[in-house]
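User: Hey, quick favor. My workstation is busy. Could you predict this chain's structure for me?
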Amino acid sequence: MPSSTKPSASSSPPVASPPDQGWNVLRRISQRTNIKLRHVSELIIEWARTGNLTADIRTELEQQLAPHARNRAPVPEAGCAPVTGGHPTPGTGVAG
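Assistant: No problem, here it is.
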């Protein structure tokens, strides 16, 4: 495995992006890193599970999301519940 693809620890994505832009972001990351789109998607899903993302994918993801970051709130760090102002989840007392 090349040194640029070694996992790096990270706790959360840089920003959230609307679903309609997700496909284009994944496609550009795939093209720019020369990694199959399906594998890029798998790596991002694994990042959500483990907190680890390869350095090349993370760098490209940050670059692709940077133009959208100006109008978006940062994604909460791992273990932090987002504040949504909804009704409490039954049995927990936590708004969801």
